[in-house]
Amino acid sequence: MAILRGDLPDLGKDRDRTYRLGIMGGTFDPIHNGHLVCAECAFDALGLDMVVFMPAGSPAFKQDKRVSSGEDRYAMTLLATSDNPHFIASRFEVDRAGVTYTADTLQLLRKIYPDNVDFYFITGADAIAEVVAWRDADKVAELAHLVGATRPGYDLAHAETAIERSPYKFDVTYLEVPALAISSSYLRGRVREGKSLRYLTPDPVTGYIHKHQLYGARASRYGAGEGSFGVLAGEGRTDGQA
Ligand code: DND
User: Fold this and answer.
1) Number of Cβ within a 10 Å radius of residue 2
2) How far is the centre of ligand 1, averaged over its atoms, from the C-alpha of 16 (Å)?
3) Most-buried pick from 25, 90, 122, 200 (CB within 10 A)?
4) Which residue's alpha carbon is nearest to atom 22 within ligand 1?
5) Which structural domain range is residue 50 located in?
6) pLDDT tens string 85-99
7) At 145, which CATH number?
8) Is the CB of 26 under 6 A from ligand 1?
9) pLDDT, tens digit, 9 for 90 and up, residues 151-165
């Protein structure tokens, strides 16, 4: 299989040091400030060199759900990350055929990067308990450190028990990020109801959603309107309502 370096950051050149590459995987339907804050906190706390945001091409756990196209999710991810010098949006998973498994991604990245580049897969702490059941979880444990972002006051017992009981040796760092009870489904619901997304996701993402009529949004003739950004609830495309 040909491996495209494409849009991945060029790390590992200085053989006298170790590099830390953060990987923020997600469906990102749409990407929001929770994802961005989570990645920024991981960047700071773990001394990462870069964080690559990778929208999943065909998300493994969402085969029975409707998800916006990879192109739309990638475009929104690109818009959301474009003003941060240590964030990069990558097409690495979007361009891969078939169901997107994280273990496959990590194995391909391991072939691309020299061994002085370590991988830190960033995820919400809620998802840590599920990682043990991911396809080829042993490979995930072997190839990446995990970063589990928690909210203040979040009970880690479920995640810790799952990791302890796993036959594979996961290296997990838990990281408290500011309370952000934001989710992609919450944003989609707001769009359908004609409500503002301001302060929940970067404005260019909101603009993209309305321009491309995602999640039931309908662009007005003159673009975004005040507050509701010109959305009419319940109209327009229906994809991405998973
Ligand atoms: P999601 O569908 O949960 O992404 O997928 C997360 C990653 O797991 C993707 O890279 C998937 O390919 C991978 N995965 C999932 C299932 C199975 C397998 C792999 C497999 O290989 O078998 P979302 O867009 O919903 O969220 C992206 C990330 O952001 C998640 O880690 C989520 O927990 C986290 N997140 C937040 N973190 C902090 N504050 C918030 C958050 N909302 C979501 N408010």
Assistant:
1) 3
2) 33
3) 122
4) 134
5) 19-182
6) 999 999 999 999 999
7) 3.40.50.620
8) yes
9) 777 888 989 999 999
The answer to whether position 9 is within a domain reads no
> Distance from the CA of 53 to the center of ligand 1, in angstroms?
11
Probe residue for ligand 1, chosen from 43, 61, 119, 147 as the CB with the greatest number of ligand atoms within 8 Å: 61
- Percent of the chain, pLDDT > 70? 88
- Looking at this protein, which amino acid is placed at residue 114? P
pLDDT at 221: 63
Q: Is the CB of 81 under 6 A from ligand 1?
A: no
Say whether pLDDT at 2 is over 70.
no
Q: Is 38 in the pocket of ligand 1 (CB under 6 A)?
A: yes
Domain-embedded: residue 200: no
**Across the chain, what does the average pLDDT equal?**
88
Nearest to 175 by CA among 42, 25, 33, 36: 42
On whether residue 125 sits in a domain, the answer given is yes
The residue with tokens 């990069």 is: 88
> How far, in Å, is the centroid of ligand 1 from the Cα of 100?
12
- Is 241 touching ligand 1 by the criterion CB < 6 Å? no
Task: Report CA torsion sign: 110, 116, 117, 121.
Answer: positive
Does ligand 1 have an atom closer than 6 angstroms to the CB of 148?
no
Quick one: pLDDT at residue 237? 36
Measure 33 CA to ligand 1 centroid, in angstroms.
14
CA distance 109 to 3: 9
**168-185: string of b/e by CB count within 10 Å (b at 16+)?**
eebebeebebeebebebe
Could you read off the pLDDT of 4-15 as tens digits, one per residue? 468 999 999 999
pTM score: 0.90
pLDDT at position 223, please? 60
